[in-house]
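Structure tokens please, single chain.
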Amino acid sequence: MISNGLDNILVKRKETDGYNAVNKEELELSSGYLRKDYKTKFATGPVYKEQGIDIAEEYSLLGRLYEACPEHTVEPYALILDETEKPVGYVMEKVKGIELSDYLSCSKSRNKETDKYIAEQIKSAVSKYHERGTCHGDLHERNIMLCQDYTVKIIDPFPSTSITMDNGDMMKILGLLSYSHK
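Here you go.
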């Protein structure tokens, strides 16, 4: 659920290519307390440039994953647009919890029943994604969050990447190129 303060910003949003969008400056001017209720992700770092990842495509993928399995996928709220109306990031639900990787490294608090419960949730989410014909693209223990009650929330999808083959054909690859088979 979006807080009232963030709702006020998103009321001013517009639809951009079918996406909810919010102006980056308006978001930055929002009160700091709102950050407790949402998380932002910006298209920065080498992976976005080297792999040619489109942040709007990532946001769209997250929306499709959320539609397929809202109980185990972080909710996307809106694209963030810069002053030229170019998508530069997105706003999403903030998950209060820890990464699965942190849970796995802490053997003291683990038990078989909890591990099984977590695995069943991940399996259920992936099955629902695949039933809808979509794929996360980068699912690993750092992209799976655990809430205090061990409910799984999947974050940070990776859209498919297009590459051109030697014969000129285009090929879609899901996930990171380093994950693909030769």
